[in-house]
Amino acid sequence: MKLKNRIVLPAMAREKSIDGRPTKELFSYYENMAKSGFSLIILEHAYVLKSGKASPNQMAIDEDYDKDILSEIAKTIKKYDCKALMQISHAGNKAKIEGDVFGPSAKENVKELSKAEIKTIVDAFAKAARRVKEMGFDGVEVHSAHGYLLNQFYSPLENKREDEYGESLENRLRIHKEIIEAIRKEIGDFQIFLRLGAADYTEGGNTEEDGVKAAKLLESYGIDAIDISGGVLGFLKHPEVEYGYFSSVSKKIKDSVKIPVMMTGGVKNLKQCEDLLNRGVCDLVGVGRQSLKNPAWLLEDMKKE
Ligand SMILES: Cc1cc2nc3c(=O)[nH]c(=O)nc-3n(C[C@H](O)[C@H](O)[C@H](O)COP(=O)(O)O)c2cc1C
């Protein structure tokens, strides 16, 4: 995928959907961001199954019903020479739903997923990716960060299974492998990014070394790019650095894989982006909250240069 620059708007939930359907307000948000100079916009997490809904006003991709407005969003973003991906997700044990909540392992108010239920989720990711392709997007980002389902499988803090989905790193990434393969089988050539909560920075959780090994495995499973963020404790939990929160693990991953590496966390201006890129920390920089605060920041900074 050819991009006009290396600055990306990362997935950020706007809570502007009703029953999963994007509103006009959400359309306007993405249209405004498309005019703001980013080379790539990753649409916020959309749930692939109702059992994986993270919040009441989250966007959905579990059925065919949103095609018109989502196609319109994809078309509008692309009008501004910007590529568009959609993040697809299942909240797992963090789902905010009525009824049973499922995760890799049972805990208070959470039931353990059976193998048949895991298969249903894998299929749902593949079907969601097909919808995203049919709507005219350039690709999907599979969400495996910030403590949602795939991150729960990857992290030993949440995954206590003793079957082929637990214990070893390969097993904890088995559902990822199945999802990537299922998407390829369903729609063939299509950009697949994967957002990895690379390390947990917590006793007993994934270390940066686990993150490097995981990235190499995921690359071998066929993803096109890896997007580095934090693990089950979220996108702000990291070793103290002013900007580029996950620089340390991102640099190690970039040195170990051939696919492009994106990293997001605490970046506020173009100088900081250039510094991270020049230091070989990543190939793409995501800028989230600063873009919400001032969507024009990139165009303003580019004018100054
Ligand atoms: C309001 C809000 C919503 C977010 N929603 C998502 C999301 O849907 N998917 C995701 O992977 N990350 C989400 N994030 C995390 C951001 O993509 C990003 O990683 C985080 O804000 C740190 O980067 P920043 O310092 O540039 O904001 C969200 C962050 C914010 C502030």
User: Uncertain regions: pLDDT < 50 for 5+ in a row?
Assistant: none
Q: Report the structural category.
A: alpha/beta
CATH class descriptor: Alpha Beta
What is the name of the CATH architecture? Alpha-Beta Barrel
Could you give the distance between the termini? 26 Å
Mean pLDDT score: 96
How is this fold's topology laid out?
Layout (H helix, E strand, L loop, with lengths): L6 E3 L7 E2 L2 E2 L1 H11 L5 E8 L11 E2 L6 H13 L3 E7 L12 E2 L7 E2 L2 H20 L4 E6 L4 H6 L14 H4 L1 H14 L3 E9 L8 H14 L3 E6 L16 H8 L6 E4 L5 H9 L5 E3 L2 H5 L3 H8 L1
Parallel strand pairs: 1-4, 1-13, 4-5, 4-6, 6-9, 7-8, 9-10, 10-11, 11-12, 12-13
Antiparallel strand pairs: 2-3
Helix pairs in contact: 1-2, 3-6, 7-8
The site of flavin mononucleotide (FMN) has 20 residues, from strand 4.
Could you please describe the fold and organization of this structure?
- By secondary structure, the protein is α/β, with parallel strands linked by helices.
- It has a single domain, classed as Alpha-Beta Barrel (TIM Barrel).
- Helices cover 37% and strands 18% of the residues.
- Strand 10, helix 7 and strand 11 form a beta-alpha-beta unit.
- The longest helix is centred in the middle third of the chain and has 20 residues.
- The model has no long low-confidence stretch (mean pLDDT 96).
- The site of flavin mononucleotide (FMN) has 20 residues, from strand 4.
